[in-house]
Design brief:
By secondary structure, the chain is of the alpha+beta class. It contains seven helices and 18 strands. A six-stranded mixed beta sheet has the order 4-3-15-8-9-12. The chain has a five-stranded mixed beta sheet with strand order 6-18-17-13-14, with no helix packed on it. Bound molecules: manganese (II) ion. The site of manganese (II) ion has 7 residues, from loops.
Length: about 240
C-alpha cells in the first residue's frame, strides 16, 4: 500500500523537508533529525554558569525545518526572530551521519559519520534562560524557525574527521569566538556513542557539536561569519 498526501497538504511537505547539498555531488543530504549537544566547551560551560568538570553530556533537538542552508561564498539573509531581545550566535561544527544504530561503542562511533559542515546554533538567549529558570522546556529558545544555519557538507573522504583546528566567528569583521575543536569536552565519537544510548540513530541525523566561549548578541544589519579550518566560511546577514 502506498500512502501519499492530499494535494492541499503537499506544500507542507515542501516546507518541512530539508536537504543540504554535499560538496562534489549532485545529491543532497536529507536531514532526518537535528541533535545539539549543550555546553561542550569548558569555557562556554563556565560562561553559562555551569561546572564543566562534572556534567555528563546532554542533548536537545531542533525541528528538521529549522535548517537554513547557506551556500559557500554567499551571504544569506537570516531573519531576526520574534519575541527575543537577546539573540545569540553559537558557532558549531556539524556532524552528518549516513549510518545508524543503538548503543554504539566510542571506538565504532566515527564509522557512522558521513561528513562535516559549518553551522550556527542560533539561540533566543533570553527565552532560553527564562525557560531554565522557570523549569520549562528549551524549545522556544532553541527550536524555532531558521535556527539552524548550515553550510555545504564535506564528506569524510574529503576532510577526514576534524578533531582539531580553529573554530571562530566574527560579527561585522570583529572576532568574537576563537577556539579550537580539540577543546570539546566530549569529542564527536563520544557524542555519537552517548546520543545512541538515548535515541536510535539513523542515516540523515545531524549533530551540532557545541559552541566555544564568548557567545553574544546580534542585531539587525549584523554580518556573522563563521570559520572552521578545512571548511568553507558560513556567512549570514541578520535582517
Ligand atoms: Mn549550541
Amino acid at each position: 500500500m502506498t500512502v501519499t498526501w492530499p494535494d492541499n497538504l503537499a506544500p507542507a511537505f515542501k516546507v518541512s523537508y530539508a536537504v543540504v547539498p554535499i560538496v562534489g555531488s549532485d545529491k543532497g543530504f536529507p536531514v532526518r533529525r537535528i541533535y545539539c549537544i549543550g555546553r561542550n566547551y569548558a569555557a562556554h560551560a563556565r560562561e553559562m554558569g555551569a561546572d564543566p568538570t562534572r556534567e555528563p553530556p546532554f542533548f536537545f533537538q531542533k525541528p528538521t525545518d529549522a535548517i537554513q542552508y547557506v551556500a559557500a561564498g554567499t551571504t544569506v539573509d537570516h531573519p531576526y526572530p520574534t519575541l527575543t531581545k537577546n539573540y545569540h550566535y553559537e558557532a558549531e561544527l556539524v556532524v552528518t551521519l549516513d549510518k545508524g544504530g543503538k548503543n554504539i561503542p566510542v571506538e565504532q562511533a566515527l564509522s557512522l559519520v558521513h561528513g562535516y559542515a559549518v553551522g550556527l546554533d542560533m539561540t533566543r538567549r533570553d527565552l532560553q534562560r527564562a525557560s531554565g529558570a522557570e523549569k520549562k522546556p528549551w524549545e522556544i529558545g532553541k527550536a524555532f524557525d531558521h535556527s539552524a544555519p548550515i553550510g555545504p557538507i564535506h564528506t569524510v573522504a574529503q576532510v577526514g574527521h576534524p578533531a582539531s583546528g580553529v573554530i571562530s566567528l566574527k560579527v561585522n569583521g570583529e572576532i568574537k569566538q576563537n577556539a579550537n575543536l580539540d577543546q570539546m569536552i566530549w569529542n564527536v565519537a563520544e557524542q555519537i556513542s552517548r546520543l545512541s544510548e538515548a535515541f536510535e540513530l539513523f542515516p540523515g541525523d545531524v549533530i551540532y557539536s557545541g559552541t566555544p566561549e564568548n557567545v553574544g548578541p546580534v542585531v539587525q544589519g549584523d554580518l556573522v561569519e563563521v570559520h572552521i579550518d578545512g571548511l568553507p566560511e558560513l556567512n549570514i546577514r541578520i535582517v
